[in-house]
């Protein structure tokens, strides 16, 4: 029912994802997961946080990073979500719809005096940590100094977040008629509820950028199947696992269709829908087994005004860098950059 609004892209490869079991580590960064000669692996900023730096300056949250609370991440690589900061450090995602609802709508109940005291305490702790780190910086070797510089970058990001907290401290969070979700939601129900909360976050203009590492194992379990996600991806030669994998894929695309339903029915003040103003990228870091070439990529939403839908785009060059897709979408969203990670250009084939 959404085909006219969807584009499927073929021949994309995450050039940096040398390890098929850790491809999600660099799915949104495209960094080289094996590192360079003589140097350990060092990630780079993910495209969602980069977009948030430009698009979320006037919003409560630059971006929202979401992950799943399931204990079995299904072969997920390093990191706690798909997001990595400027220092190449993993960003902890909100784990499940209960945490997301609290971040969006739960009021603190603090008095102005209590709030000011809390923020002042945070600033004081941060000042102490920064002073100690600067003192240590003068006494360590160059290698340790490089590590400390990464630490300084993390501190600067905390400072930026604290400044934003202070700016928004006097503005209460929006109210909603939706009740807080109960604890213990998992699988398909967890994913669909998270989709609804993402739409509310966008509609209430608390952020304009969201990344979501969806649950895998609990979705399979909620379908009545007892498969480890990693084992299920290695289905070659097994008719049983092949059938189960196809059922899982169908369930995931059914959930995507329901997410598009939500975006289309969520209205803006001018009568348009969230879908009319959104760019949605949906995909995975792996095709099957250990195959990390020609990874599945679906683009939808009318927020990219030059992106033409209702087609399959087979890129003329096999192993086109995945970073080219992120660069194209970032530019379509209005982020003023000409290069992202290992990109070699944009994807003009997507544009009308």
The geometry reads as globular
Biggest sheet, in brief?
A: 4 strands, mixed
Assembly classification? single chain
For the largest beta sheet, what order do the strands appear in spatially? 6-7-1-8
Number of helices: 9
Q: Cα distance, first to last residue? A: 22 Å
The total strand number stands at: 9
Mean pLDDT over the residues: 87
Unreliable stretches, pLDDT < 50, 5 or more residues? none
Which class best fits the helix and strand makeup? alpha/beta
CA radius of gyration? 21 Å
Work out the strand percent. Answer: 5-15%
Helicity, as a percent range: 25-40%
Strand and helix order = EEHEEHHHHEHHHEEEEH
General description of the model:
The chain is of the alpha/beta class. It has helices at residues 47-55, 97-105, 112-137, 142-168, 187-203, 217-222, 229-233, 239-265, 322-332; strands spanning 6-10, 12-13, 64-67, 94-95, 210-212, 280-283, 297-300, 311-314, 320-321. Helix 2 packs parallel to helix 5, helix 3 runs antiparallel to helix 4 and helix 5 (187-203) runs parallel beside helix 8 (239-265). The model has no long low-confidence stretch (mean pLDDT 87). The longest helix is centred in the middle third of the chain and has 27 residues, at 142-168. The protein is globular. The strands form three sheets. It has a four-stranded mixed β-sheet with strand order 6-7-1-8, with no helix packed on it. It has a three-stranded parallel β-sheet with strand order 4-3-5, with helices on one face. A two-stranded parallel ribbon has the order 2-9. It has nine helices and nine strands.
């Amino acid at each position: 029912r959404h085909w006219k609004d969807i584009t499927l892209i073929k021949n994309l490869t995450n050039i940096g994802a040398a390890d098929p079991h850790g491809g999600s580590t660099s799915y949104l960064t495209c960094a080289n997961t094996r590192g360079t000669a003589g140097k350990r692996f060092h990630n780079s900023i993910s495209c969602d946080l980069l977009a948030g730096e430009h698009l979320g300056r006037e919003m409560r949250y630059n971006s929202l990073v979401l992950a799943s609370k399931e204990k079995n991440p299904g072969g997920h690589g390093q990191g706690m979500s798909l997001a990595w900061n400027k220092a190449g450090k993993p960003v902890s995602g909100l784990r499940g719809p209960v945490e997301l609802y609290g971040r969006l709508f739960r009021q603190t109940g603090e008095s102005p005096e209590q709030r000011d005291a809390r923020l002042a305490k945070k600033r004081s702790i941060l000042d102490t940590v920064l002073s100690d780190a600067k003192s240590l910086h003068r006494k360590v070797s160059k290698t340790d100094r490089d590590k400390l510089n990464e630490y300084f970058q993390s501190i600067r990001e905390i400072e930026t977040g604290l400044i934003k907290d202070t700016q928004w401290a006097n503005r209460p969070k929006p109210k909603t008629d939706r009740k807080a979700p109960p604890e213990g939601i998992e699988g398909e129900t967890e994913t669909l509820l998270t989709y609804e909360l993402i739409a509310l976050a966008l509609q209430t203009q608390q952020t304009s950028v969201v990344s979501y590492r969806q649950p895998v194992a609990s979705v399979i379990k909620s379908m009545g199947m007892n498969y480890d996600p990693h084992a299920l991806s290695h289905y070659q030669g097994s008719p049983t696992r092949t059938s189960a994998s196809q059922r899982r894929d169908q369930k995931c695309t059914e959930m995507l269709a329901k997410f598009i339903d939500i975006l289309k029915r969520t209205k803006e003040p001018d009568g348009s829908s969230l879908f009319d103003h959104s760019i949605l990228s949906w995909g995975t870091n792996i095709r099957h087994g250990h195959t990390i070439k020609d990874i599945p990529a679906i683009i939808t939403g009318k927020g990219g005004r030059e992106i033409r839908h209702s087609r399959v785009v087979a890129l003329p060059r096999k192993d086109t860098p995945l970073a080219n897709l992120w660069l194209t979408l970032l530019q379509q969203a209005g982020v003023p950059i000409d290069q992202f990670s290992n990109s070699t250009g944009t994807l003009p084939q997507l544009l009308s």
